[in-house]
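Quick one - first record:
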Amino acid sequence: MLLRTLGIVWLATAAMAQDARRHPAGSRDQGLPIDPLRFRPYAAAADDACNEVFRRLWLQHEAPAEVAAVLPREGPVAFDAGWVHKKRKGGEADGRWFGGDGRQLPLEKLTDDDAEALLPLLARLRAAPPAFTTPELAVLFQHDLLRAAQRLADARNNPDVVAALWATAAALALPAEALAKLTDPLASATAANAELRAALPQVLGGEVTGCREVLRRSTRLFDAEYTCSWSRVFLRHPDGDEALASMLPTSGDGPTVPIGMGAVLVQGIVALGADGKAHATPMIVDVRTQVLVNRDGLAATNQTFTHDGIDFGIWQLERQAVRTGAAAAFFRSVQADDQDMFRDYGTLKHTTYRGQCTLCHRVTDTPEPHLAGLPVLRPHAKAAFAVTGDERQRLAEQQAQKLFDALAKGPATAGEKAK
């Protein structure tokens, strides 16, 4: 079921109305921001203080350190061995607007103008906290501030802004009881969006049966000390629960993944409470589905996300949709050839979601083709079935608390911790 519904969703959402804030499908800059002023996540007025803070942090005109060969302006792509690794050094001519109402934060260092503008804006928000239309929007804005503070501290840049971001995030913190009552935007979205509902497991409000959560040892990409987010992974075996159970615990080189096996990753916000503690909220902001469709080999004619047999679905929560209450549009469907700036491995790289995801999730040109791009099944990941269902949220709270404690002590402490 997951196999077919994912393919249907991927094709159907590609035909949705074009977002006027981003370059359209088929263009040289597909998915990138057109004009920062078109992004108004927290209020309808472009000059709203929260909107301006957001734009100065989450939209950056940046020249990437690396430019992937898979980008349309780099010429035709031959989907043969090594395509996913081909890139060149970036330069000033490669500068573009990156970021926006999504999950990728292109921030590395603020310009002097942005830093000077942010400090009084943040001071104003501390003195007169904004009246957000919903508590969920308040938590999203705080999350944006904390992510930016972590990034700048990690890069050891703009310490005065880091301190102001932390102070503002703390000033906007909600009580623990209010955080516990937050609604999950994914639940609202699946109730209103049949296509999204068809792609997700029942435990997330979808229709797919047979998914079980697995715990694992994860990398920095899913460590809340760096992301302020919790993450959960669910697996589904096409032959049922017993077949899945027989794969765990993994040993040796790991199991051979059958065609039709799927996975779902969800990530949600860990907020800073008014008590100074980290609280895992029910607010899911990122959803990714993965399924092995075939093992027909790498080829342009293999019409899957990775061109070697794996399909992906990627949905990201849009702040602006949360503000307007358009539940069916809460989550943007990210297309394979949408572009973004990625910093997953420490270097700002301009590539497509197809190019970035395929680095770690592919069947060919890898020493572990039997895993079919499911690193959770590597033996050292120590995958095991969840028992309570909240293990990853509790772990994320412990991880995020380290960041919050470091930021409270000052930018230098947070930056030292990040290293």
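second record:
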Amino acid sequence: MSYKESDRSMETRLLAYEHASWMTEIAAWANGLIGKEPPEFPQYRVIRIIHFQVLATQDGYNALVLVEVVERPEETEQIALRAEDIAVIEELTSTVGEEPTNGVEQVG
């Protein structure tokens, strides 16, 4: 079973950046959000920036960024294994550390 982003519900979050001296500072911050966990929402990962707005202030700039996020899978989430997979894993791991017979390793 593999994780697919389409299996998770997409949500949006509004993030803010305050007291930037330059527009490039805001751009670097916003571009750095993609694929990462926003500090305010560590259980999510940013998929894309939907919209952002920059506000000029007396000392520089503030920005509001609307991002699309996906919830990160729980660390305790388990992967379902078929009985055949378990049998192969057990067979492979049961011979670990054993000496090969006649200098040749036997598998299976």
